[in-house]
Amino acid sequence: MRLSRYFLPILKENPKEAEIVSHRLMLRAGMIRQQSQGIYSWLPLGKRVLDKVNAIVRQEQDRAGAVELLMPTLQSAELWQESGRYDAYGKEMLRIKDRQDRPMLYGPTNEEMITDIFRSYVKSYKNLPLNLYHIQLKFRDEIRPRFGTMRSREFLMKDAYSFDLTREGALHSYNKMFVAYLRTFARLGVRAIPMRADTGPIGGNHSHEFIILADTGESEVYSHKSFIEFDIPGENTDFDDVAGLQAIFEKWTSAYAATSEMHDEAAFNAIPEGDRLSARGIEVGHIFYFGTKYSEPMGAKVQGPDGKEHLVHMGSYGIGPTRLVPAIIEASHDENGIIWPASVSPFDAMVITMKAGDEACDRVCGQLYDGLTNARLDVLYDDTDDRAGTKFATADLIGVPVQLIVGPRSGATGEVEVKERKTGARETMTVEAALNRLTA
Ligand code: 5CA
Q1: pTM: predicted TM-score of the whole model, two decimal places
Q2: Pocket lining: 320 vs ligand 1, CB cutoff 6 Å
Q3: Which secondary structure element, helix H or strand E, spans residue 404, and what is its range?
Q4: Which stretches make up the Aminoacyl-transfer RNA synthetases class-II family profile domain (predicted)?
């Protein structure tokens, strides 16, 4: 992608409305634009990051055996009257009437709709376990939308829903998602700690929130420090190994970790003082086991091996991609801008010409751009004739991991300066060496 033909509306000034660094940087880097309170457009640079986050979320859901579908944003009120949540959900639910005066709503979550799909098709235990998920916009009319897409009214959620014949089966399904979440957040370049959590309007009594520690987080959290060292389950994890997944779950829940709603002061004080962590955090995922809370009122039953009808045991599992993007930035930035973990960076590398139109610069930049693109890397080529200072500031602001800088002098000798965004380390090398390094 050539910057001269891209749409990257960088802001020079710090936007006044942004209270936290991720919101400020997302606005300045031209990633998002507020359209009305708590409702955002994702501009091209932001959309690229969001797509990368979603791709990792999707891969790990699929690896854990979940199956993707897509449900609508608008739902009929009838379904929610069946579960009893239509009245209970209160003002956070955006209620709408269609032209026939039928009550509709913009879905804040999808337990009812997925239960309806399930009961329409699945009649036998032989089709279980089943886990269905989608990545879809949600709407919650939050009283205090703030911090950009961190807490917005319209936001993207990956929500998965599991169905099992028994409670034991459902707890294994829960463990699958627990492990998938550990892997997902690690691949996104952040460390998320699973914490015992309150279940709120979703319900149930077995629930964990996944929290990224950050001073600007809205949750108050308490935990043992040991989480920092726990191993992330590998790519070859066997998701059908019931005992194996239970062992991972037990390891990761062996040390104290709870949000303020579930905090047990006595248990926390039992931890040696030097190992206590009392901090703020961002909730990026939340998983629930709630048994038959929805299958019972909505009549979602299957025939068991005993020939009798059984209500299915369910769980639901949420991740917020549009919250994860700012959460990653909170965890990874410096005074010059964003520092993307490679896995979610909008581009893999940036090629920067210091003199557009200079024969040597154009040639060397072209070689780099073609070489990297042919190796299937995503490259942003700053081919503009902006001042050097502006170019460097933009490159640092948007946080692509590697900058390949070509000036008339280095261009003439077929060389390029390779700058690592994170450390600021610079090294001059031949085009070939740079290509080898990036495509190795
Ligand atoms: N149905 C369940 C799980 S599928 C559910 O709705 N869970 S939730 O309410 O905890 O939301 C799941 C995730 O969505 C949260 O962990 C968070 O990452 C994200 N999320 C929730 N509310 C917002 C919001 N207002 N803005 C951005 N992300 C949000």
Answers
A1: 0.97
A2: yes
A3: strand 402-406
A4: 37-341
